Amino acid sequence: MNGLKPLFNSKSNRYFFQNISSEALIPWGYLFKLSLKHLQHKKRKVGHKKDLIELVELAKNYTTTLNVQEFSQYESMFQRPDTILDKIQKLVIGDQVYAIPQVNCIDILDITRFIFSRVEDESLNLQWKLDEYMGVAEVISSFAKNNTPTTFSAVDVLSKLNNKTPLAVIEKILVNMSHHIDGINNDYFLPSDSQRNNQNFKPLINLAESSYLFLDSNLFSFGFYEVVSSEYRNAGVKDSVIGDILEEFISNKFTSSGISFLTGEKYKISKAQQKLLSTPRAMGECDFIVATDEVVFFIEVKKKVLTRAAQSGNIASISADLVKSFANAQIQANWHEIILRSEGVLKFESGNTLKLNGRNIEKISLSMFDYMALHDGPTIHQIMNNLIGRELISDDKAVQSLLKSVNKSLSELNHQYSLPELSEYSKCQNAFFNCRFYNLLQFSQIIKNSSNEEEFKKNIWANRHVSTGEKDWFKEMHYLKTLDKKAEQT
Known about the structure:
- The protein has 490 residues and is α/β, with parallel strands linked by helices.
- It has three domains: 2-98, no CATH class; 105-234, Arc Repressor Mutant, subunit A (Orthogonal Bundle); 258-462, no CATH class.
- The chain has helices at 28-35, 48-64, 84-98, 105-117, 130-143, 154-160, 167-177, 217-220, 222-234, 239-257, 271-277, 308-311, 315-343, 377-387, 400-418, 420-426, 440-448, 453-460, 473-489; strands at 8-9, 14-15, 150-152, 178-180, 204-208, 211-214, 262-268, 283-291, 295-302, 345-347, 353-355, 360-367, 435-439.
- The strands form four sheets. The chain has a five-stranded mixed sheet with strand order 7-8-9-12-13, sandwiched between helices.
- Helix 4 packs across helix 10.
């Protein structure tokens, strides 16, 4: 963990990993996952620093042979249909090799409490009450200081909770939260072994009978959500329920910020419109709408995550996950835009209306969790510009159902862009310039930094015409803020 300290940016409260260099980079992600297999305390031998340097050099040399490191910020910008799948695969594997997924502990606890408090039910056979679990999790969060490893006992947690939760319950929760020290990533060896990486399943490590380790709040906090999610899933709670509550969470954030918005608005697509547009869809539903005098934002939410099979580099799985998150949300938003442009107004069943009034339209796909490099604007634009109008084909019988689903969505997307209402985009160099892809934590930060619709637009557009090529939204926002401050000082 000491090696990661120089990468930590205290202002952003995140590690900033480098993925572009003319020199071979240290594969932090790969080394981190390997190191978790060997957490047992061992006495340092003479010359251990020299051994460590040699190990890092060996890892750099090995991962360089994978050819997934980018040596220029322009590498992703000039793809063709025959290169794009290979590039997507390299980006996903590169994230696993050179970066480590991270979440802010406070944010993930906020999401966890909000979502699962809405499905709390006495009839569920849970091992503990949600309030008890969250109380323990919040105490552990308070122990974490400056992203340094923290050890504690159940008695320490009991003391912080002022004895409100029985020690036996705290101990049960801590056991649920904990990896055994010998049980992390045991079968992980290669960067393609993401399906064998179990680190994110739990936030803690059980060092001894009554001693627990919270290794790093940014790198292990996702486990707080995963433990609860798994518990509720095992109790019979369906993922579709979580998806509905996710929209309620976003509504709550919009309301708290003071941004005016519409949500869950439904409208009918008439028989005549269906025929004219060649679509069987009889109903449209807008997850979220934010409008300014200049632009209308359609925001569509998809719970789909980047699966471990995709993280391993399986291109069929990557394509399917990306289509089910980004592309299907765009398809949904495209129908809103098409009807709005053709009719000049959307008339909702609630009685509300949305008039175009000559405004531009932007469409945001919102995933629940991180797709890492694939959230990058220029990257997702390159992907979609090269996939639209095409089919994915494979001789592998095991992926046919995945590809059938992918190709169905790509076909509908291609049809939409052939219609008069969207065909103007196809004449542009970048047909998807008005399309964005965020995850929930990125989007929540945008909302947090906005107090009205104009500020929301400004924050969405902050990196609209700028890219560092690093494919890290938080790092890019930090860089742009630094430039703004320097400009103000001159």
